Amino acid sequence: MIESFRQWKTTTGFALLIAIAAPAHADDGYRLWLRYDPVEAPLRQDYARHAAELVVQAPGASAAAAKSELERGLSGLLKMRVDVRAQVDRDGAILIALAKAPELRPLHLATRDLGSEGFIIRTARVHGHRVTLIAANSGRGLLYGSFALLRRIQTRQSLDRISVRDRPALSLRLLDHWDNADRSVERGYAGKSLWNWQSLPLSDPRYTDYARANASVGINGAVLNNVNAKAVFLTPAYLTKAKALADVFRPWGVRVYLSARFSAPIELGALKTADPLDSAVRAWWRAKADEIYRLIPDFGGFLVKANSEGQPGPGEYGRTHADGANMLAAALRPHGGVVLWRAFVYSSADVDRAKQAYDEFKPLDGKFASNVIVQVKNGPVDFQPREPFHPLFGAVPHTNVALEVQVTKEYLGFNTHLAYLGTMWEEVLRSRTWRPRPSATVADSISAMAGVANTGTDRNWSGSHFDQANWFAFGRLAWNPELPAQSIAEEWTRMTWGNDPAVVRRVVPMMMGSRQAVVDYMTPLGLAHLMGTDHHYGPAPWVSDLQRPEWNPAYYHRADAAGIGFDRTAKGSNAVAQYAPEVARRFSDPRTVGDDYLLWFHHVPWDRRLDTGRTLWDELVRRYDSGVERVRHMRRDWGSLKGHVDPQRFDEVATSLAIQEREAKWWRDACIAYFQSVSHRPLPPGAAPPQHPLPYYQALRFPDARGH
Ligand code: BDP
Question: Model confidence over 547-560: pLDDT tens digits?
Fold first, then answer.
């Protein structure tokens, strides 16, 4: 479903830089990657030649937003006020115009394939003058083009003879906020919810800045409330609040969606049932949809978590996910809305939690209405530091599928551990599903991407400066799943930390290796879910006595005297059979599965010799050590940037990295101590011995004991 439509220039296109004075002022990170600090002279004069005036020839709120962002951005970057004119009357103008504008007719632009969000940026002659033209079929396209132009200046790429043609590969690029009415955020590590439900519909300038940030990376929708939904969000009072947000977001191309509680007809409508085939229930949802669209004419639709972790759903009435989703889809259809129906389901009944979503949803392929999108987490379990791709990707060709990823780092060290997730999502998007054709990837099988947001009221929005990169990378990848994670990291670094070559040279490799570091010190070689079961923060591989089997870390690692890992081959749970035969074959064989997923699919004897020449036990210990080692290097590399980065942000990152190093050791030592108690193997020579005996770690409780 993705059209290949790339305009990515490799990083070699970045302009070379001259020495930059060390930034001295304090900075709290509020401006995100939209900092617009002055370009250094003489490059600034060069860019200024391309901004002799700004001419906007397009009506509407999004074109006005584009204009205001360009004025803001250019005045910051170029340290001058840019003249705004009605007509191009000199060389060096920036002209923003709808493709159908009469001025552009002589250019014969081909814009049909740009759709409603794509844009062109190119050098052109208009009224006899040399201009930089941003053209699109809609105001939103112009807005995205304007951000793309600013990004080029922010990353010091040349505007001479520019020729860019771009459009999003996926039509829906959404942030899912797991925000509650009391402003708490489920799995939020950046303060409270951005939405002040108490004072809404009163506005707040931060709502606009949120929408600007999203627009700058192409995010075009926001689900306002938690998937563990409360019916209150569908009451008239809350819909009025949602409308206020929708009104602020609209010029920036961001539509509002709501998580809908499936049992709302009972809770709000006093009906006896929420059975999706009941006519009164259907009428209730129709009336609710009509009411919403009267307030929010471009409302995006509903996100639904049903029959999952205690949420109500059609299963209670003996109906399928398709029955439930289609009922809501019918209510939204007249208004153009969609239903995002989550496939995150599991229960203790199954021998392998990883299998349940596929088992429930695969038979429903072709049964979902055309405005239903089944939203599938990247892996079959739950946002672990590393999982293989979810077997539903590519397996349901007659169903619209969205990829759900978690921007907030619930299982990757919250906001204190630095982990750039661009590499993780690149890995998922590029995974070959072999279905429906051998070359098919996860990216080919999706029409939407949703990211569980990491935003909150912290001044830096995301709880740490580097977590902003994950918001940024999510948007960039949802726009173009083929973008390399490294290029995105470099863009973000230049926009966020500046173009000082010393900074770019250090920060980009730090980011690129950071997620693997977390994998190695938490869950190496395909292990998963070794963390504390309620907070999901610190190590707890010893937990095995919780009431539901799949809540226990021991359920996932299955360590015993013989070995470690979850046998998902035909001899075990046979989860491998859910993949295409080519993939299943590779995953089934411990010699071909690869280190990354070894213990995800296999129970491996401790003394089995791996490709590396080491035994499994020795390799495991080595991975834990190397995770800690990488963090140590990140700290050192960051430390070398003192004076190259403003002091406040420098110190904050340095403090987080110190926490991360301490906690990486905590993870390593606790896991090794535990696995050693099971395997009874000696530590390999050179390995760091755990600092404490096992009972010490087992007694640690988060968060009070985090300062160990
Ligand atoms: C789990 C989270 C839980 C969410 C659930 C979900 O721990 O808070 O409600 O995912 O995705 O990872 O619904």
Answer: 899 999 999 999 99
Same domain, 23 and 57: no
Helical pair 647-679 and 501-522, crossing angle rounded to 10 deg: 20
Rounded to the nearest angstrom, the distance between the alpha carbon of 226 and the centre of ligand 1 is: 10
Residue 656, domain member (yes or no): yes
The Å distance, Cα 197 to ligand 1 centre, comes to 22
C-alpha distances (whole Å) from 611 to each of 498, 522, 576, 590 are 42, 22, 22, 10
Query: Can you give the pLDDT at residue 392?
Result: 98
Q: Are residues 336 and 350 in the same domain?
A: yes
- The two structure tokens encoding residue 76: 């910051």
State whether the Cα torsion 393-394-399-402 is positive or negative: positive
351 or 268: which leads in pLDDT: 268
Report the CATH number at residue 555. Answer: 3.90.1330.10
Which range (357-371, 425-439, 481-495, 524-538) has the least confidence? Answer: 524-538
Instruction: Tell whether ligand 1 has an atom less than 6 A from the beta carbon of residue 50.
Output: no
pLDDT band of residue 25 (cuts 50, 70, 90) is low
Q: Is 377 in the pocket of ligand 1 (CB under 6 A)?
A: no
Q: Give the chain's mean pLDDT.
A: 95
E strand or H helix that includes residue 563: strand 563-564
Q: Identify whether 297 is part of a domain.
A: yes
Q: What is the pLDDT of residues 297-343, one digit of tens each?
A: 999 999 999 999 999 999 999 999 999 999 999 999 999 999 999 99
Q: Does some domain include residue 586? A: no
Residue of 3, 83, 182, 309 marked active site: 309
Helix intervals (H) in 407-500: 422-429, 468-479, 485-497
Smallest CA-to-CA distance from 452 within 483, 425, 489, 423 is with 425
Looking at the fold, whether 17 and 79 belong to one and the same domain comes out as no
Q: Is 383 in the pocket of ligand 1 (CB under 6 A)?
A: yes
Q: What phi and psi, each to the nearest 5 degrees, are found at residue 85?
A: -125, 160
Domain of 93, in residue numbers: 41-166
Q: How far apart are CA 222 and CA 224, in angstroms?
A: 6
Based on the structure, what is the number of domains in the chain?
Answer: 3
Note if the pTM is more than 0.90: yes
pLDDT band at 349 (very low <50, low <70, confident <90, very high): confident
The verdict on the CB of residue 537 being under 6 Å from ligand 1 is no
Give the Cα separation of 344 and 307 in Å (integer): 9
Note if 426 is an active site residue: no
The answer on 502 and 432 residing in a single domain is: no
Of 98, 131, 166, the residue at which a domain comes to its end is 166
Q: How many angstroms does the Cα of residue 37 sit away from the middle of ligand 1? A: 39
Write b or e for each residue in 573-608: b if 16 or more Cβ atoms lie within 10 A of its Cβ, otherwise e.
bbbbbbbbeebbebbbebeebeebbbbbbbbbebee
369 shares a domain with 330: yes
Is 410 one of the annotated active-site residues of the chain? yes
